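Me: Here is a favour to ask of a fellow structure person. Could you put it straight underneath, so I can go through it closely?

Assistant:
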Amino acid sequence: MSPLLNLLTLPPFTNHAHPSVRGPMRRRIGLALLIAHCAVSVAVASDRFRATVEHVADGDSMTVRAEDGRRSKIRIAAIDAPEKGQPHADQAREALRRLVNEQTLEIEAIKADPYGRQVARIWLDGTDLGLLMVSRGQAWHFTRYESDQTPRERHAYRAAQSQARQRRLGLWQFNDPVAPWDYRAAERRR
């Protein structure tokens, strides 16, 4: 359960050092925090804009400048590219850089990640950029976050990854490529 939702279900506050903050007031504060959290989520979720790429950090993230001048760090939704230090990481970054170089992208931010980046669906000339990266074997379909996708998108990403793997494209040319989420977990254990 979300910590914000927990505030709504707590028993009345009984700390005698702070008698002014009791059950009903605490619940109202929790409700206000929940509403604020939802408002921020909706604001991020409904943010759609056009932008050009200033910098490609890796095969699934970049810095863009919107037409209104604001800069944003973006992570492509539903994909995970090899991490720096993994085989094929440089190739995935270069593949993304070549695709977006001097192009205008249509970006729909759907949420923020823990690193302050906007996780977004991105289209390049009407083509789903994440799906394109997966179909070329430059990234994995990040199934951990497939709930952010429509059923049609999930099906398309799964099929694209399966075809890239069968054709041994990109990172699938290696016998047993390690998924980035497994690589990160192994690095944390070190």
